Amino acid sequence: MFARRPAALATALAASCLFALPAWAQEVIARAASPGDVIKVEVQKDGMGKLAYTIQRNGKEIISASRLGFNLANARKLDGGFSLRKQAVSMHDSTWEQPWGERQFVRNRYRELRVDLEQKEQAGRQLAVVFRIYDDGVGFRYEFPAQKQLPVAEIIDELTEFNVKSPATAWWIPAAELPGLEEEIREAPLKEIGIANTPLTVRLDDGTHIAFHEAALVDYASMWLRKVDGQKLRAMLAPSPGGPAVVREGAFTTPWRTLQIADNAAGLYMSDLVLNLNEPNRLGDVAWVKPSKFVGVWWQMHLQSGTWNYGPNHAANTANTKKYIDFAAKNGMRGVLVEGWNKGWESNWGHGGADFSFTQPYPDFDLPGLAAYAKSKGVRLIGHHETGANIVAYEKQMDAAYKLYAQLGVDSIKSGYVHEAGSALFPGRDGKPVYGHYDSQEGVRHFLKAVTEAAKYKLSIDTHEPVKDTGLRRTYPNWLTREGARGVEYNAWGNPPNSVDHEAKLVFTRMLSGPMDYTPGVLSLVGADGKTFNSTQAKQLANFVVVYSPIQMAADLPENYDKYPAAFKFIRDVPTDWADTRVVNGEVGKFVTIARKDRHGDGWYVGAVTDGEGRTLPLALDFLDKGKRYTAEIYRDGDNADYRSARRFDLVTETKTVTAGDTLQLRLAPGGGQAIRLVPQK
C-alpha cells in the first residue's frame, strides 16, 4: 500500500516508529547551503538506510540523487542500514598566503556540513560524511573513526556517484590506459564516455560548467570515474596489485571528492577549491623553494641529435653542460637541467626494469665540478632521477641520492617514471616486489614519500609520469610542479604531435588540478626529422603565461634562442611566480586569455591562445592600476600568420601606451597566440 503514499507521509510514519521507511521514499536527513546561498547540498536516506546526496545551484538541481558508500573485502559493506547519529553545520572564512603560486593570497570561505552515521545492525559501526560547500563548488569526504567494529578497512570499491542531471558535453582523458596521463584529451557527450581520469570537465546544456576531481590524495588509491548509466558516474579506485584497492587501519579520512562549478569555463580555472581542501603547509619556512626558469640538456635528445646513454653522441657531457650554464647565466635563468648524466641508461629501463645509479655519473660528466661551476655563475644544476618506474630500486638509493645533491648545492630534482600503465614495480604489502598501477595506493604512497624525504634535504621536486595533482603543493610546497599530460616532447616525436587545440583544452582540464611542467618556448617549431608543430611562434610565447608552472623550462636549443632574439626577450622577461591571476575569457578547446601579475614587481603579463580557428578576442585592461600608464610590449601573430604554413614564424613586436580604461583587440592567427608584457611607466 505504500506505493501510493507521498514521501512526506512515509517520512512521518517512519518518524513515529510505527513503520520502517519504504525503500522507494527519500528522507532528507541533512542540508546546508554555501555562504552566498549559491549552492545547496542535501543528504538523503531511503527506507533501506542507503545514503545519497543532491546538489542544487541557484535553485536548479544539477546533481541528482547520487549514492554514497563502500564495498569492503573484510566486512559487510558500508551501504545501507544507516541511521543519523547527529549533524552539524559550521561556517569558515579565512585567507592564507601561498609561498608561491598563481595568486599570493587565497580566500577559503565555505560552510561545512558534517553528517555522523551509524549502522546499528553492524554492532553500531560508524561513518561520517563531511561536505564543504563553497559558492563555486563542493568537496566531500568520508571519515572513518577508530572503532573495534572495523579496526581495518579493506576497501574493494567506493560507491560514490555523480549523477549529472542535464545533458552535458565532456572533456577527459581515459583512465587505466597504457600511456597513463598522456592520452589525448577527448571530447564527447557525457553519456558516451567510458572510464575517465580526473579532472573530468563537463558543460551542461545551459552553459554551466562542472569539473570533477579529488583533493588531498594521501595513502589512498586514485579515483577514476566510470559511466554506469546515462550520465551517472561512479568512482572507480585504481587497483592494487596486493588485493583490495585500499587498506587502512584505525581512523582515517578519504581524499575529498570535488566538484568545481561555474557559469563558464573561465570560472572553473579561477576556483581555488581543490587547493583550499588541502591541509596547510607542514614544512615551515620554505624560503629555500625557488620558483624560476631553466634551460637544459633535454631537447637535443628528443631531436635525436644526442643520446641519454653513454657513447660518442652522449649529450650530458661536461663541455656541453658548461655551454648551457653559460647561456643560463647570460640570460638570467636560474637552472640547468641535465638528463642522461648517470649510469644506467643503457639498460632496458622503460618498463619497471631500470638499473640506474643515482649517485654515479658517466665518465664524461663531472658532477661536482659542474655543480661548483654553475654556482660560481649564479646558476644551479637541476638534478634528474629517471627511475623507469622501478620504485623498489629507487627507494633503496633515494636517501643517498638526495644527500649527494644537497652536498653539491643542487636544490631541485626532476624525477621520471617512464613506463606503461600497470608496469610500475613497488614494494608490495608483504614486502615482496609487485607490478602495478602508478596511481594505486602503493604509487600514491611512493610519490608523497619522494617529496617528504626530499624536504628533509631542502630539495624541491618536479615529477614526470606522476600521480595526478590534487593540491598537495599547499601542504608540501617543495612539490613544485609535475607533468601529468602530453608535453611538448610529443611535438618532437610527431606520432601524432599535440593537436592545435591542445593548450586550450589543457587549461580547463589538466590545469584545474595544478601546475604543469609543459616545457614551452620551442621557437624553432620543429621536432625530430623536420616534424612541425601545430603552433605559431607567438603561441609558444603565450604558453609561458597560459600553462602555469612555478619552474618553467625554456625548452629550445640555445642556438635557436640566439636566432630569434626578439621572441626570446619575452621568455627572458616573463616571471614564474604571481601575485594575482585573472582568466579574461575562454572556452574549452577553443581559446583562452589569462592575465597574471608579477609577485616581485608591478608588471602584468598576458597570454592568449586559440585552436585552429583565427580569432579576435577583446582584452579589457581593467585589472591594471587606475591612474597609471603602462607600456604594452606586444608579441603577436603577423597579419598572415598560420600554423599550417611557413607563416607560423610571422611574429610582430610592437609597443603602445595603455591604461586601465583601455581595451585591446587581440588578433590570433589559426593555431596562434599573443603574449603581452605590461610595464608601469615612471
Can you tell me about this structure?
The protein is of the alpha+beta class and 682 residues long. Among the domains are: 26-276, Distorted Sandwich (Beta-galactosidase, Chain A, domain 5); 502-524 and 539-682, TIM Barrel. Helix content is 17%, strand content 36%. It has 13 helices and 38 strands. Strands 6, 7, 8, 9, 12, 13, 15, 16, 20 and 21 form a ten-stranded antiparallel beta sheet that branches. An eight-stranded antiparallel beta sheet has the order 1-2-3-4-11-18-17-14. A hairpin with a 5-residue loop joins strand 1 (26-33) and strand 2 (39-46). Helix 7 runs parallel beside helix 8 (441-456) and helix 11 packs parallel to helix 13 (565-573). The radius of gyration is 26 Å and the shape is globular. Mean pLDDT is 95; it is low at 1-21.
